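Standup notes
- DV: blocked on the single-chain target, sequence here:
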Amino acid sequence: MSRLADLSARREAMMRRFAFETVDVFTDRRFGGNQLAVFPDARGLSDGEMQSLAAEFNLSETTFVLPPEDPAHSARVRIFNRTYEMPFAGHPNVGTGCVLARHGLDRDGVLLFEELSGLVEVRVERDAAGAVTGAVIAAPQPLSTLMELPAEAIAACAGLAPSDIITKAHQPVLASVGIPFVLVEVTGEALTRATPDIAAFRRTQEQFPKVERRLSLHLYARDPAAPDIAAPGGARIRARMFAPLSGTYEDPATGSANATLGALLLSLSGAEAGQAEIVQGVEMGRPSLLRVAARRAADGIRATVGGGCIPVLKGEAEV
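- DV (later): unblocked, structure below
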């Protein structure tokens, strides 16, 4: 064996292989919805390797599944976007839940994930033949509203005029059910032409340090024929989410942002519960449908978000 071949063989022997699966989330067809990579067994990967793999996949998020700290739970799930670890996110929980359920790891259709923001419950959905089709997740925290932001600054971030922002129900507000988003109601026409202005994002983040590095802007427009989350049948909403400073120029389906939106809209009504169908990703060519529900609970307003999940790829990463 030549020296070069010997070095290659030794390098190959030192390589560690980790299986991954990709899925499209909040859709019922491949190549729609939001893409996700899942490592069902991430034991042996360091923090830095997880972050590097997430950057390599270059998706909105990548998840890494580890044994739970509490054996009563299903798994510990770590979520990384392109640049940092996230305490909670919507489509990664739906997608990871579907992947693990397809491996038979749910208990009576339920999984419990330990995450930085708290415990996340995942309820798996199956068709009549028992095949996994999607999931509904419960956000780990009740609604919290952290601060209002000026319409002028937020409009600039989205490449819009202040007059495009609707403030009748609420000002642009930083809110969370596990991870914070700036929620902004806009006109339907403005939603279509919104374009993130990265310089304005940087200025706004510097001006309002409370948003930290998570200046994630979630714009939404209500369908005038079904605007009320508490009405029979619920609301119909279109949305777009921009977070360019964390590497996501635009996201095709943001479960955590839409769960927060559902909770916020319920908080503005006098109702006990409400629901909404939210369409996102249309402008990106990856249409997504999210089902959001919110209810008043003893500790505040709680929200769930659910949708479909389709398997796409399987493979191995060499580290």
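- Follow-up: The chain has a mean pLDDT of 95.
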